[in-house]
């Protein structure tokens, strides 16, 4: 799937953008049987999802636009599409609901209309750029970048589709059967056909690669599962399974009206955590709607495929713990920290402070930022800082932090820590240092009220940690330091 914003904030506002021409365009499609209304949300005065007058929708959106007369571009008009008929109208609509929520328009009135007049299935979304509750403009900084980022997130979460895997050569994975190779391509959105002993794999009807079945069979004849890695996975499973619900839940296609479509797979809280934390993809095998009889593990990090039962038997993997499932504070934070690049001790210190965990609890990864990724952030931030103050980075879900005399940027959305000097102009960093000096020169008013000051500071440090001994140690030690007592 792809997401495109048709009337972004660049350039002058068109007549359509000022007057919600997108509503007329889409209802005309409906009138000519080339479009179908899939959803009508948050229109307080319009309750019927099927019988709707275009002028009512348009007038309602115009009434919201009047809350902010200074905003010229009042219309938000976007398209979510796929190649050919890869996804149906219900799947596109479901993705559109989640996407518009992440873009910041979930509480605003919006319509979704499916178009059937082109080769590629697609839905249009029309809403107002004015927040219906506050009358303020909905933030639109880098909305084209965010549009792509969020649709990629949804594809990965819902369909297990990772755009990064789209061009992966799965013949390089350690597989032991031809069936495993087919599975790798299938779960990444490919189709295949076999003609005269040759396997042809396709993506969006385009040939990606061909494999001679006999030659590949000979090639993998001596392949074996990596038992060292298998033992590691077994240890990981036994460590984390008691903390999660392992019971398998069916995953269905979502149809209009929140109806369930066909069964497409199974998942559990445990398998979700394993994918997020360790990059392990679980594929459960079932037939005729019956419970799974087996499963396969795809280890994308190590480029290996494992028969699930060789790691852990299915009944053991899918059983629920006897005790009530409750993640500790530190386990919850570990989920939030998963995937960050920890390229230096400064990165670890910053993440430790921001997420309020001991340094040894910060997950260490081998992820490093390449030249292209750094250039992307450099272009993004320099463009943003031309018209915005550096103190407003929170609008991009980013935050500044200083460690050992150096400034860093934390991108919470991208789970990335950057050295500020690599991506921000030096003048902006100098102004930051000047501001920090001014702040540091202001007397600490809590000295005038030491009891209140210590209590306020301790409250910001100590979260609701339950019975986690590690975090109690951390917060207790910090509280003593605040009181001027050092415990060795």
Number of helices: 17
- Structural class call reads alpha+beta
Question: How far apart are the termini?
Answer: 56 Å
Query: Main sheet?
Result: 5 strands, antiparallel
Oligomer: single chain
Question: What features would you highlight for this structure?
Answer:
488 residues, globular, single chain, 4 domains, disordered C terminus, 5-stranded antiparallel sheet, BirA Bifunctional Protein, domain 2, 38% helix, alpha+beta, 3-stranded antiparallel sheet
Q: Topology, pairings included?
A:
Blueprint: E1 2-5, H1 15-19, H2 21-31, E2 35-41, H3 54-65, E3 75-81, H4 89-102, E4 110-115, E5 122-128, H5 143-159, H6 178-187, E6 191-195, E7 198-203, E8 206-212, H7 213-219, H8 227-240, E9 249-255, E10 259-267, H9 269-278, E11 280-285, E12 294-299, E13 304-307, H10 314-317, H11 329-337, H12 345-355, H13 371-385, E14 398-403, E15 406-411, E16 416-419, H14 420-423, H15 426-441, H16 450-461, H17 469-482
Antiparallel strand pairs: 1-3, 2-4, 3-5, 4-5, 6-7, 7-8, 9-10, 11-12, 12-13, 14-15, 15-16
Helix pairs in contact: 2-3, 4-5, 16-17
């Amino acid at each position: 799937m792809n997401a495109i914003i048709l009337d972004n904030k660049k350039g002058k506002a068109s007549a359509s953008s000022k007057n919600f021409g997108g509503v007329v365009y889409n209802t005309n499609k409906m009138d000519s049987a080339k479009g179908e209304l899939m959803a009508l949300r948050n229109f307080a005065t319009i309750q019927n999802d099927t019988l709707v007058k275009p002028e009512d929708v348009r007038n309602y959106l115009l009434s919201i636009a009047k809350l902010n007369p200074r905003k010229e571009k009042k219309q938000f008009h976007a398209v979510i599409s796929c190649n050919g008929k890869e996804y149906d109208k219900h799947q596109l609509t479901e993705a559109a609901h989640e996407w518009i929520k992440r873009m910041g328009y979930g509480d605003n009135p919006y319509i979704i209309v499916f178009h059937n007049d082109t080769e590629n299935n697609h839905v249009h979304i029309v809403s107002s750029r004015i927040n219906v509750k506050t009358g303020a403009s909905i933030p639109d900084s880098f909305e084209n970048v965010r549009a792509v980022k969020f649709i990629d997130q949804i594809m990965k979460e819902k369909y297990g589709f990772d755009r990064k895997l789209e061009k992966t050569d799965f013949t390089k994975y350690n597989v032991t059967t031809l069936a495993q190779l087919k599975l790798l391509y299938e779960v990444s959105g490919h189709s295949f056909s076999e003609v005269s002993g040759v396997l042809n794999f396709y993506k969006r009807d385009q040939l990606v690669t061909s494999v001679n079945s006999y030659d590949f069979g000979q090639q993998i004849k001596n392949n074996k599962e990596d038992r060292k890695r298998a033992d590691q996975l077994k240890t990981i499973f036994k460590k984390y399974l008691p903390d999660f619900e392992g019971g398998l839940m069916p995953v269905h296609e979502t149809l209009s009206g929140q109806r369930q479509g066909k069964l497409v797979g199974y998942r559990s809280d445990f398998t979700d955590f394993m994918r997020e934390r360790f990059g392990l993809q679980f594929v459960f095998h079932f037939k005729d709607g019956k419970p799974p009889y087996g499963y396969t593990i795809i280890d994308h990090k190590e480029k290996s495929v494992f028969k699930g039962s060789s790691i852990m038997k299915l009944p053991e993997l899918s059983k629920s713990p006897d005790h009530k499932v409750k993640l500790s504070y530190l386990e919850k934070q570990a989920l939030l920290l998963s995937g960050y690049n920890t390229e230096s001790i400064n990165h670890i210190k910053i993440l430790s402070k921001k997420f309020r965990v001991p340094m040894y609890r910060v997950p260490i990864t081998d992820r490093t930022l390449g030249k292209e990724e750094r250039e992307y952030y450099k272009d993004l931030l320099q463009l943003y800082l031309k018209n915005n103050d550096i103190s407003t980075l929170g609008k991009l879900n980013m935050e500044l932090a200083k460690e050992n005399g150096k400034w860093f940027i934390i991108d919470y959305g991208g789970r990335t820590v950057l050295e500020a000097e690599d991506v921000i102009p030096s003048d902006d960093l100098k102004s930051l240092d000047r501001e920090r000096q001014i702040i540091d020169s202001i007397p600490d008013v809590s000295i005038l009220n030491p009891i209140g000051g210590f209590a306020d500071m301790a409250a910001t440090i100590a979260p609701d940690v339950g019975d986690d001994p590690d975090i109690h140690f951390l917060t207790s030690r910090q509280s003593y330091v605040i009181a001027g007592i050092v415990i060795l």
